[in-house]
Design goal:
73% helix, 322 residues, 14 helices, mainly alpha, ABC transporter involved in vitamin B12 uptake, BtuC, two-stranded antiparallel ribbon
Amino acid sequence: MENVSFLTDPIFLNSIFRFVAPILFAALGGMLCTHVGITNIALEGFIIMGCFGAVLGSYFLKSAFLGVITGVLFSVLASLLYAFLKVSFGADEVVVGLALNLFCSSMTVFLLRSIFKVTGSFTSPDLKGLGIINIPIIRSIPIVGPLFSGHTALIYISWLFVFLTYILLYRTAFGLRMRGVGEHSEASATLGVNVHKTKYIAILLSGVLCGLAGAQLSLGNVTMFVEDMSSGRGWIAIVANLLGQSLPLGVFLSSLLFGFVTSLSFRFQGLGWASELTEMLPYIITIISLILVYIFSDKKRKRPSKEILAYKNEQMNHRIDG
């Protein structure tokens, strides 16, 4: 077996969170949709729109910051279309999600050829990428320094959003309404909650987060746009949300797992492993995770709740007394 000393290599350690951030952003967006009762499988399309929008804004506006804003706007527009079809028209979320993924992928290819007159990929010296932030003191600590320092602002912001989404869901009135809509929308409506508005906001927030994911991919991890450069990260984010049980900390840990495996696959490829094998690793972990989610969720469904057990005990006592 290959020497595993690369696990402490600064380059490898620094790459982990670069692969984690796009998955984490998208998974947090999917988590918000889950809490309002929507399984958003259009995350892949939102991300690719964010990728293209970020490159477009960075190139024409000569600013990485404005590129990120443009990427977010592109992704939000895609999420608005999804919300319009799903919430306003009541379309099937699976059909709409698949259609949006195909539409966004094709749209970015069309725009790439129409605006930049190229096919496949676009890069230019005029593109402004996201800068690296080196944290004093921490940067000089072995292992810890390369792992937590030397990242773009978006990577640090992705960590912040784990706490922000927790506060939103569990420490605000709007978060309570979101969870209420997801658990029982009819009951929430009778209490005066605008169900459609709540779902719209959740979907648009997922668009914002996926836009940040796309901007990190095209302006942070690299400084270019490549057709379909989201490379299945939206689908992995869906699994990360499932594996994390739609909890902010759980989503963070599951995203960390997928990011680590992705980084590991690139390193194995650099060590001479066949690219066909290494590129499969993230998806193998995804399949295993789905199996585990199914097993544990199935056990949870079969396990009777405390209310059901109490009811059964009460019925049994009545029979005995009778």
